[in-house]
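CATEGORY: protein folding

GOAL: derive structure tokens
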Amino acid sequence: ESPLQALIFDSHYDSYRGVVVLIRVVNGSINKDNKIKFMGENLTSEVEEVGIFGPDMIEKEMLTAGEVGYIITGIKEVGSIMVGDTITDLKNPAEKSLPGYKKPKPMVYSGLFSIEGGDYENLRDALGKLSLNDSSLDFVPEVSVALGFGFRCGFLGLLHMEIVRERLEREYGSKILISTPNVAYKITKSDNSVIEVKRSSDFPSQEKMLKIEEPYVEATIITPKDYIGDVMKLANQKRGNFKDMQYISPERVEIKYAMPLSEIIVDFFNLLKSITSGFASLDYE
């Protein structure tokens, strides 16, 4: 029988039992009392319960290859479980993880602060539980002179940031303030060391910097042909590099630019809608 390989595709937190991990068994089998290893996080634990959904949680003796179900290990630390990780047997481990697991790299950073000063611990717990089924959410503590204690959070983009804010407010009742989003810069210092800076206040002095690099995206703009000139003027003002332009119909044009992500996340979309009377659309990757 092949060594156990099970893919984590979701998880949630139970206040009595800890993290409930949802898995699909790809190879091998998993039983109650098995000692297992989370290969991506290099964490070991013991299985307290295995089961399936029907739709309620139904306990079973084991899950075998091809089955989808859940395991409970008693793990309480919500940051220990990552969606996309591979579970294997500790005594007979698989040689490698299932393909596709890679920690998502945040692209946009913003500060999250509780409106009520005493709500810091609740916000931390809410972010931790939210990260159980959103492995792309990254957060570390941060202190602001004006706003107090909060968290510097990393998101995949502006839409991801809005979804996290909405879920924090709706699912956990958190009332939060979000600071202006920004991106991470890679700085090569005069001693040739490389650092990543996520806040303007962390930039080294000018004489200590040799090079600054910032993330770029490929932006695709679809607009009526009457607005081509205004759209290209706006993109050039935002430091965009023209790549391509194609007519997708007699009246509509697709324009591609390479643009700094920092220029897009502030007000580019609103300006684009304004100069095209709301007709243009924007996508980027």
User: Anything to note?
Assistant: Residues 5 and 223 are 48 Å apart (CA to CA). The chain has a mean pLDDT of 86. The first strand starts at residue 5 and ends at 14. The chain has four helices and 21 strands.
